[in-house]
Amino acid sequence: MASEQYPLLWLLLISIIISIISLPCASLDSISANQTLSGEQLLSSSGGNFVLGFLPIGTNSSQRFYIGIWYNKVSERTPVWLANRAKPVSNPSTSVLQISSQDGNLVLLDQSKSLVWSTNITTTSSTSNSTVAVLLDTGNLVLRDGTNNSSKILWQSFDNPTHTWLPGGKLAFNKVTGKSQQLASWKNSEDPTPGLFSLEIDPDGTSQYIIQWNNSRSYWSSGLWNGQIFNLVPEMTSNYIYNFSYVNNSQENYFIYYVKDENIISRFIMDVSGQIKMLTWVPASGSWILFWSQPRQQCEVFAICGPFGSCNENALPYCNCVKGFRQKFPEDWALSDQSGGCERNTPLQCNTGNNSSANVDQDKFFEMDNVRLPDNPQALQVGSLDECELACLNNCSCTAYSYESGCSLWFGDLLNLQEQYGSGTGGGTLYLRLAASELPTQKSQKNMVVGIVTGVVAACLLCGAIVWVLVWRRRKKALLNASKTMESGLMAFRYSDLQRVTKNFTQKLGEGGFGSVFKGVLPDSTAIAVKKLEGLRQGEKQFRTEVSTIGTIQHVNLVRLRGFCTEGTNRLLVYDYMPNGSLDTLLFSSKTSPKVLNWKTRYQIALGTARGLYYLHEKCRDCIIHCDIKPENILLDDSFVPKVADFGLAKLMGRDFSRVLTTMRGTRGYLAPEWITGVAITAKADVYSYGMMLFEIISGMRNSEQVGEGRGAFFPTRAAGKLIEGDAFSLLDTKLEGDANPEEVTRVCRVACWCIQDDETLRPTMGQVVQILEGVLEVDVPPIPRSLQILSENPPENIIFFSDLSSNPSSQMQTYTSDSSQNKTTSSTSSGNPS
Ligand SMILES: *[C@@H]1O[C@H](CO)[C@@H](O)[C@H](O)[C@H]1NC(C)=O
Ligand SMILES: *[C@@H]1O[C@H](CO)[C@@H](O)[C@H](O)[C@H]1NC(C)=O
Ligand SMILES: *[C@@H]1O[C@H](CO)[C@@H](O)[C@H](O)[C@H]1NC(C)=O
Ligand SMILES: *[C@@H]1O[C@H](CO)[C@@H](O)[C@H](O)[C@H]1NC(C)=O
Ligand SMILES: *[C@@H]1O[C@H](CO)[C@@H](O)[C@H](O)[C@H]1NC(C)=O
Ligand SMILES: *[C@@H]1O[C@H](CO)[C@@H](O)[C@H](O)[C@H]1NC(C)=O
Ligand SMILES: *[C@@H]1O[C@H](CO)[C@@H](O)[C@H](O)[C@H]1NC(C)=O
Ligand SMILES: *[C@@H]1O[C@H](CO)[C@@H](O)[C@H](O)[C@H]1NC(C)=O
Ligand SMILES: *[C@@H]1O[C@H](CO)[C@@H](O)[C@H](O)[C@H]1NC(C)=O
Ligand SMILES: *[C@@H]1O[C@H](CO)[C@@H](O)[C@H](O)[C@H]1NC(C)=O
Ligand SMILES: *[C@@H]1O[C@H](CO)[C@@H](O)[C@H](O)[C@H]1NC(C)=O
Ligand SMILES: *[C@@H]1O[C@H](CO)[C@@H](O)[C@H](O)[C@H]1NC(C)=O
């Protein structure tokens, strides 16, 4: 018995000894020759911004440890650098980080004292064992000569980044070695091993940054440095919390950035999604807020869904397998790593060695319309679609063909396929080869249809009476439900009832940050929209309280909440159904669409939306900030009266806006700059988003889509310039063919420009916006928002109006330059003299 306790005692003794000779406490910021770091010991940078230690990552966290650097002041442990990202150790208490006595390198040894990781510099004899590793307050770990008090850096983590690019760090191209430093994404959300996506400065020596897939295929470029910004990243100017510069000297060229306010914690990462992202820590919400990412669209990331996966920008998740295929590694897919792609449910007939001429079903082709055709087609000179098909059928490794402007065949894996790809942008029809059994023959389909029709008719004839009785009963049931309304007038629905009225959630209307929306029809034949909330961790009582608050908010320009359902983990909201859908579909519909919203309707939508927001901000009991104003959230009823949707949900879903923001696609342009600075968000953030939306109502196009496509400047910038020129009318959507009231266009444009001022005190309130649009208040020419102004000084297309601005300031300009802080909106009586 006693002998069993001795080893324990020994262990205790040893660990006491170790802790005495190693780091005494967490306050040290360096490791020198006679010190080690293991177990739960930490290095802490002198100012306390960063700590270094053993970091567990992944679900089986007790299994995998990395030497990592993370933020000390961020509650969510966020690594910014990892030493052994591809070689974790299993036990931190027996692993040590120390200065090697042989060569002065900082090394990580595992329990068997074998080398896991090393700074791996070739040292000179003078520095052999006198080096010291210091964790700096910038998050940089540096190795330098300790004895000679030398500041010469032998090695630093900033030169060996993992997936995070911290302020003050650089991703350089070394002209001497011809190598570029890379940021590489994680393999998946729980494995920091380098994944397929990487960012680096062009190794061919130009000034642009590129993102590559598998170090071979570039799918995004920043554009060349034009002296101020990167050409294809006009948004850089609105990142006004940063200062940055581009360095090009004899050794290297690189871009470097700093955060101006040292209290702001911001980082730049190469994400597993294949996008680069700028994230800022917002202490108030306790989360990282994403405010910028590129490529803007998830599906622009090359081969994001892997072989035989297809990307769909309008679906969540974005990736799915094409017909006849299933996920090859579902456990990787669950961790956002789709690189393994999909595999066939049924092997091709051809590949089973069976004769295609034999009397068995041949392989068939499945038609996929409106897709972005896969990568790497092989052209074939044949004259018709049928010959093209035959050519594919006759080669067992041919997996698909298309016949657009000629015959193209694909062999092997299909990569980079995208569905619901806009027509006229290079999309086409793909014929995908599948085993015959995956595709029901037309004959059997016909039979099925006949069967269904017969069945339905029979059912109708035979069971008419019973159906009638059932309907009658359901109505009665619904009436019973209605009696369960709460004091706020909301109806409490049963889950099973909602399941029934939505035909088991089959008619999907859309998908947003909070969940999917389905159409349903109540027994009294009123149409409803049912929103299934996702990711809600609230208790039932709290949910009911919040919902009943939302239920009391009623206005003609707000979507009415009819009821809700809370059963088990299900949380659903039931709204009035809006037959004309959301504003984005009407506004941004393709050129071919016959339906164009006329100007009068657009003006009414702008005004109605403003009234709805005004009510939310100032008229209801608790002021509600919407936080997510964008055309997708403006719904239209049968007479095109706008109704703001999704209000109150930001509050209901908790303060964690990152969820909303990170699932937003292409809508970052609506976010006010204060979102990134971490200051308190006020109703003026909604005003900003509303302004951005107004520009889109004028132009009929997304602001974000008008950059870098030969159209010149960012639309709001161009608009601000045109306003000063007095030519706002030329900004009008060309689809309207000039059919609009010029005075109204100018007014809307001015309001929009006031709304997007950087300084939130300059922006009008929604109440003022309503008055301006009603024509009660006059509005002056707004100044160009500062962030837009810097932007437009650069691209050549915009130089004209700025030189106009500086050379011959007109009286209009004096109006706003003389007193822009107070009188952005002056009432009609006092508009002439803003004292
Ligand atoms: C480690 O070495 C430094 C000098 O290199 C010395 O000042 C310090 O006392 C040593 N610490 C221990 C615990 O031996
Ligand atoms: C997690 O660890 C358990 C045992 O500790 C193991 O059975 C399981 O396979 C591990 N899971 C993964 C995903 O590594
Ligand atoms: C160290 O660098 C040398 C070349 O400089 C390389 O061959 C070796 O693999 C590296 N070792 C480690 C552990 O990175
Ligand atoms: C450093 O190296 C020198 C010889 O190169 C040796 O005499 C000395 O003991 C070493 N010091 C330590 C702390 O290992
Ligand atoms: C210390 O640095 C000086 C110059 O900075 C150099 O001349 C000297 O050789 C160095 N000493 C050692 C021991 O490396
Ligand atoms: C190292 O530099 C610091 C100040 O930079 C000085 O106080 C210290 O005396 C120097 N030590 C040696 C050994 O030169
Ligand atoms: C660096 O500067 C040189 C000369 O000024 C110029 O020729 C070269 O194109 C620049 N390279 C980059 C990558 O900016
Ligand atoms: C990436 O490229 C390497 C060769 O450079 C290749 O072996 C590997 O299969 C590629 N990975 C994928 C997922 O295609
Ligand atoms: C940016 O600001 C920091 C501190 O405010 C300053 O040290 C740095 O030199 C500036 N960098 C550039 C590129 O302007
Ligand atoms: C060839 O086809 C026949 C009939 O469909 C099937 O039974 C047989 O397994 C196939 N042969 C191979 C090698 O798959
Ligand atoms: C394919 O079918 C032909 C006749 O239809 C036959 O002669 C040939 O042996 C078959 N080949 C294979 C691989 O089954
Ligand atoms: C099928 O096509 C591939 C690629 O063009 C070619 O290499 C192969 O020889 C073809 N196989 C047959 C049987 O024609």
Q: In what range is the share of β-strand residues?
A: 25-35%
Task: Characterize the overall form.
Answer: globular
What is the CATH homologous superfamily assignment of the largest domain? Answer: Transferase(Phosphotransferase) domain 1
CATH class of the largest domain: Mainly Alpha
| Unreliably modeled segments | 16-26, 476-483, 654-668, 707-711, 791-835
* CATH T-level topology of the largest domain: Transferase(Phosphotransferase), domain 1
Task: Please give the radius of gyration in angstroms.
Answer: 31 Å
* Biggest sheet layout: 6 strands, mixed
Strand order of the largest sheet: 35-39-40-38-37-36
Mean pLDDT over the full residue set = 79
- Terminal residue distance: 94 Å
The total of beta strands comes to 44
Bound molecules: 2-acetamido-2-deoxy-beta-D-glucopyranose
- Fraction of residues in helix: 10-25%
**What is the CATH architecture term of the largest domain?**
Orthogonal Bundle
Protein structure class: alpha+beta
Give the count of structural domains. 5
Number of helices: 18
Quickly list its features.
single chain, 835 residues, alpha+beta, Agglutinin, subunit A, 5 domains, 44 strands, 25% helix, 25% strand, binds 2-acetamido-2-deoxy-beta-D-glucopyranose
